[in-house]
Every structure is written in structure tokens, then in C-alpha cells.
Amino acid sequence: MMSDHDRRKQISVRGIAQVENVANIKKAFNRHLHFSIIKDRNVATMRDYYFALANTVRDHLVSRWIRTQQYYYENDPKRVYYLSLEFYMGRTLSNTMMNLGIQATVDEALYQLGLDIEDLQEIEEDAGLGNGGLGRLAACFLDSMATLGIPAYGYGLRYEYGIFKQLIRDGWQVEEPDDWLRFGNPWEKARPEYMLPVNFYGKVIKDEKGKSKWVDTQLVFAMPYDTPVPGYRNNVVNTLRLWSAKAENHFHLKFFNDGDYVQAVMDRNLSENITRVLYPNDNMFIGKELRLKQQYFLVAATLQDIIRRYKSSKYGSRESIRVTFENFPEKVAIQLNDTHPSIGIPELMRLLVDVEGLEWDQAWDVCVRTFAYTNHTLLPEALERWPVSMLQTLLPRHLEIIYEINQKFMEAISTKFPGDFDRMRRMSIVEEADQFGEKRINMANLCIVASHAINGVAALHSDLLKSTTFKDFYEFFPEKFQNKTNGITPRRWLLLSNPSLADVIVEKIGEDWITNLDELKKLKEFAVEPQLLDQIRRVKAENKTRVAQFLSDEYNVDINPSSLFDVHVKRIHEYKRQLLNILHVITLYNRIKADPNIDMVPRTILYGGKAAPGYHMAKQIIRLITAVGEIVNNDPVVGDKLKVIFLENYRVSMAEKIIPAADLSEQISTAGTEASGTGNMKFMLNGALTIGTLDGANVEMAEEMGKENIFIFGMNVDEVEALQKKGYSSQEFIQKTPALKQIVEQIEGGLFTPEQPDQLRDLSNMLRYHDRFMVCADFEAYVACQDKVASVYRDQNAWSRMALLNIASTGKFSTDRTIAEYARQIWGVEPGQTSLPAPYETAEEKP
Ligand SMILES: *Cc1c(COP(=O)(O)O)cnc(C)c1O
């Protein structure tokens, strides 16, 4: 049998190991094991080898990183700043080797040292500094910005604990802290010399000239940690800068000078808690003060850094230090990833007016030309609306500034729409008091007023922004509204995660698709020949066999690798309708029980995803899935016709393993609720077919591949709206659909949870009485569509042909396209302007 190493060697897109470079990698690896890890091979653990390897690979980044930053300093191009509370980076080692083009060489070096590179890659902890799509988008954007040579910086928080580790215990989700830095992080470099102060609380006073001053504040320091972001084989290395909270040295001693030194040292923890943990909520606003502190901490540190860099330009130093800010927007673009960093708007106003001494109108003009805002959701429960009382306490000066922005905006509305007080109320940044007398600041409204561009993340979503939630704003600022359909980086999501498929593609059309994904359409001409279809089928079968082996090792379940792999992986949320999927699974189970000899396409349904720890209904949905799995997987009547598995702790590194093995991708959100989705694109790129609603980017995927190559079902946005308007009653659907009625009664009767029959009562009640996302209304169409999926799957040739046409139609969904659009249409930056030669101080890079 072929060894893993030999199998990898056959993948030509990885390149060929150079003998001389292999020797140098071995030398560097041994040197790091000795001098950096301080171990010899008698006592070194696998983790030691991982760290020695990470250090070895990192060495190859260093010169390129320094040179790229030097180049930006010398040429002073316009900088792009991507501000995000989340960067869901996953693993770095393999991605770095791939982008540097040293995979094959390193693989060979380790092989000669008696080590397997894949075993070492598995040691690396995911950098799980994100929840789901929004955070992963930020990570894919970084990859594309570097690959397109855009002078860009990611700015975020260095959470000590990323997204929690999910365990499944007795079928329920249990959370454990994600202590990802426990063994150290070889990819980051602390920069204590660039530490910056951040203030909280205090009060606002007016000085003799009537200028506002924010005083008596509590001080925390922001310590930057830099991570290199290499472009794909272009010698560009950008920076992701993450801030970590550090207590001030005089903390508390200043306030309580009672000599309790030990207590004062212990209290340092309080301020360092700011960057302790990522909030684990996806598409949900939790109005906690600590979260607002995190948001302000990020933007306060980042804006100081941006202004420092602006002022210290080569062309602005000494003689002509940049003291004016008129040109600031020509040198700085700031993209807000959702409203999460939106407190940066009043912060920039404060810095310009209170600190730099600009007039209000001048400062406002700079602000609007600098900021751009991306909206990621229309779900009302996800829109950030901070209580005025909280801002008053934590950031009193910012609240004043927001009031002032709002007052001027209200005046502008009344000029354009005199006497239209209802419109003013709807558009106000400061909302009217609620039933408890609480006033709130609507951060999305603030972002729209203060940005020159606002974009949705798929065509449908951008249209809905204009026609629903932000209709009034669209009427007022039509020129600000844009669409930027999301994407994914084809480097991580095909070249890295599915090297065998990448190689099949390279053999047909070469390597240009790696940086120009539209090239994949050249594959279409091969859709009539059996050869490429056979190869695609073979690669999919291999990937499925590997996952089946993993499932057997990990969960002790035996999977039929030739069954249809039906995959639903994403955050668990009612709007994403994992519930609709499991209702279909129960339908199949009921059919088998009714007719044990039924002729059906065997299926393996794989679920994965985390529920927010406080989201009761999402946790019930997980429990229903695991309960159905326990019954179905152990029922001898079912055999290998049906298997249901909940994958524990779904995360970026697991997505990379599972998605290449999927036959069917579940993208079944209620139409109008999923802004874009990016999981959908990963599956399509890896040759899975999609079953989905006309929602988010599914709409554009269907356009690109043709409706005959995707399984679309259910209500569209207009039909959802019409049903809502008419008055939706899930009970009606349950009564008129026998298969559905049976299932609801089975859940109520505790068929799947016999030990505790009423365990899932909240779930069945939800279906009957508050089915907000219309699971029951789409049930029949979904089951019918799934039956069509199965019948097409019986014709493996037809299926493979569709899979090929899916792959060939993914060009639009590269973040390279997304980023080029942001660059030209929002940031005013031309991609591809950074050109750097390879450094060659190491043998690897010698020409
Ligand atoms: C891509 C990705 C997501 C987003 O998936 P959607 O289906 O778009 O919600 C979430 N989590 C992980 C780990 C991902 O890689």
C-alpha cells in the first residue's frame, strides 16, 4: 500500500522537492528543535516537532514581511483597514507552506527525518477567534487582500479564549473553554513598543475655550500582537494586528492608596478581562457592557495606530509632518465588518475635534469619506442597539458626539422632508424610549449616516436592505448603497483542503485558476467526456472513504462510504433550519419502518455546528438530532440505508476535512434570512450539489450554474412575505400533511427520547405554535425535492456531470473577485499594484 507521503508526492500541484532545499529545511528544523524548543530527539514530543516546524516555516516569511512593510512605507499607498471583532483564521502552518510554495520540500525533509507532516499539522490549534461566516469571511478577505497586493491591515482582538470547544454529552451540547494559547502561538509577534492607552468611564468637562474634555477616566493599555498574512506566491506579507488588554502599571494604587499592594496587583485582572473571551453569539445582539468595552477597546487602539501611521509617513516626517487631515481619506480607508466596530465613528470624531482641533464640519467630512459599512444581517435580534445609559457611563463623550451627529442629521431630514416627523422618528440614530423608559442608539443607522458606502453581502440581501429595513435611508442616500457578494478563498478551500481535486483540475486546465477562479469555466467543455467525470467521482469517493474512516475512529459508527453524504454544517440557528433537515430524516426513517424492504438511496446525514450557549431552542435542535441518531443508527431494520451523525466541535479545520467529502450541501434557510452564506460556496467548489432555498448567495449560485444543476425548493422571499401578511399558522400545515403530523406527534410522544419523553416538548411546541421560520410551510416541498435528489443520485453519470458544472461555475465566488470590487468601488484602491521580488537569503529562494 502507498504511504501517505508517497500519495502526497503524486500530487503535482504541490511541486517537486529540491534536494538542496530539503537539506536546508532539515538543518533549520534541527536547529529550531535544539535552540528554540531546547529538546533533543530522545525527549521531543510530537508537539515539540510541530513547534520546531512552525518556527522553520516562519523563517521563510520574515524577509518578505519586513520587505512588504518597507515597500508600503517607501511608496505610501492608500492603506485599507479591515476592522472586525472576529477573525476566524483556523490553522496557519499548512496555509503558509502552500502560499510560500514550500509544501513538497518540507514534506520530503520531514519524511527523511522520520516524521509525517500531516501528523504535525494536526497538532496545531485552530485560531478560533470567530463564530461562523462573518469571522471566516474576514479571514478569507485577508488572504485575498495579500494575494492581490493590497496594502491592507486586519485589526481585531486577541481573545485569550476563542469560540468554545463543543462536547456532546448524553446527546446535549456542553461547552469547554478554548485555551488555544496554552502551548504558545508561534505565528504571533508581540509588539510591546507599540502599546497604546485606552480610556473608559469618566466624565466630560468644558475647558475655558468651551472645548470638551473627557477626564477622570480609567486607563487600560492595548498591546499589539502581529500575525503575518502571506499572499499566494507573490512575496507579499500583510499584517493582522490583534490587541490584548494590559493593565496600567499604577492600576488601582492610584485610586486606593491604602497600601494594599497585593490586592492592587490582583485587580489588574479586571481590566485585562476585556480581551479574555470571544462572545459566542452568531447573528444575535447581547447588550453586555463587557462586549461594548471590547468594541471600544478595538477601535480606540486601532484609530490611534492608523493616525500614528498616517502622521509618520515618509513624506510627512520632520519637515512636513502631516498635521492636516483633509487628505486623510485619500490615504486611509476603514471597512467596518458589521456594526461591531461602529463606536469607531464617534471615536474618530472625538480624535479629530477634541484632540486634533478640527472644526466639526471638517471632521465630519473626513469621517464620511473614510468609513464604509458592511451589513451582515436583517434579523432584528441581531441589530445592535446600545442602551443610552450604558454609553453614558462607559463613554460619555461618545454619547454627546452621537447626539450631535443625530441632531444635524435630523435637521437634514427636515430640510428634505419638511414636517415628516414619522420619517424622522424612523431614521433617528437615537431611538425613542421603550416600555421600560430605556433609550437606545441604533448603530446601523449611525453607520449609514457616517459612511460613504454601505453594502450587503449578496444581491438579494442588498436589495432587501434597500426595500425593507433601510428603505428610508435608501431614499435619502441612494448613492451610498452597494452590493458586494461574499466569496471564499480558493487557496484554503480547494487547493489546501482538496489537493486531489485540485490536481485533477490542474491536469486539465493548468494552475491559473488558483489566482483567477473564472478559469474554472474551461472545465465545462469536458462535461461531455467520461474521463474527467470519472476522475471527479474517484476523488470524491476517496475523500468519502477518508471521512468514513475518521467517523469510525472518532464515533465508532460504521458508515457506508458509497451512501449519499448529505451534509449540514454551520452554526445551529432556527433560521438555518437544521430542524427542517432532521424532519426529512425522520420521514425517511418512518418510510423504512413502514416498508423495511423499501428501495432507497442509502444516506449518511452529517450535522455539525455550535449553538450559542444561552440559545435554548438551538440546543434542543442538537438534542433532537442526536436522539434521532441514537434510534436510527441502532435499529437493525434500518441497516446501512440511513445513518445520522452529529459531528462534535465543528470548526475551520473540520470544515476542511468534511466539505471535500460531501455529495449534498444543505443550504435551506427561510428565504430572506441568510444574508449570503459562504459555506454554500465551499461545497460548490468541492463538487457537492446544493439543495437550497432561493436565499442569500444561493440565488447567484443558481444563476451561475443554471437552475438545472441545483435543487431549489420552497417559498421565495415574496411568498414568505405574502404568507406572513396573510397570517401564518403552522398548525394548518401540520394538519394537512400526514407525514409531518406523524413526526410532530412522535416528538411529542417521546419516540426518540424514550427515557424522558417530554425532553423535547419546547421544540414540538415551537413547531406547532411559534414556527417563526416556517419550517412546516416548506416541509412538503423539501421532502419532494430530497426525493428528486435521491433519484438523480441513482444516475451517477448525471450526478457527476452536475458536480462538474458546479465546480466550473464557482468563479464568481472567489474572495479575489469580492475584494477587487471593494477595492475599486469602495476603497479607491487599485488591486495588483504591489510588486515584490523574492528575497533570496535562504537557499530555498536562491534563483
Ligand atoms: C464557512 C464557515 C462557516 C459559515 O457557514 P455558513 O453555511 O455560511 O453559515 C461557519 N463555520 C465555519 C467553521 C466555516 O468554515
UniProtKB/TrEMBL annotation:
Keyword terms of this UniProt record: Carbohydrate metabolism, Glycogen metabolism, Glycosyltransferase, Phosphoprotein, Pyridoxal phosphate, Transferase
Classification via CDD domains: GT35_Glycogen_Phosphorylase
Keyword Acyltransferase assigned: no
Pfam families: Phosphorylase (PF00343)
Catalytic activity: [(1->4)-alpha-D-glucosyl](n) + phosphate = [(1->4)-alpha-D-glucosyl](n-1) + alpha-D-glucose 1-phosphate
Record-level Gene Ontology MF annotations: glycogen phosphorylase activity; pyridoxal phosphate binding
Requisite cofactors: pyridoxal 5'-phosphate
EC number(s) per entry: 2.4.1.1
InterPro entries: Glycg_phsphrylas, Glyco_trans_35, Pyridoxal_P_attach_site
Gene Ontology cellular component terms for the protein in this record: cytoplasm
Positions of post-translational N6-(pyridoxal phosphate)lysine modification: 682
Gene Ontology terms: biological process: glycogen catabolic process
Chain's role: Allosteric enzyme that catalyzes the rate-limiting step in glycogen catabolism, the phosphorolytic cleavage of glycogen to produce glucose-1-phosphate, and plays a central role in maintaining cellular and organismal glucose homeostasis.
Family to which the UniProt record says this protein belongs: Belongs to the glycogen phosphorylase family.
PANTHER family xref list: GLYCOGEN PHOSPHORYLASE
Protein name per UniProt: Alpha-1,4 glucan phosphorylase
Source organism: Diploscapter pachys
Lineage: Eukaryota, Metazoa, Ecdysozoa, Nematoda, Chromadorea
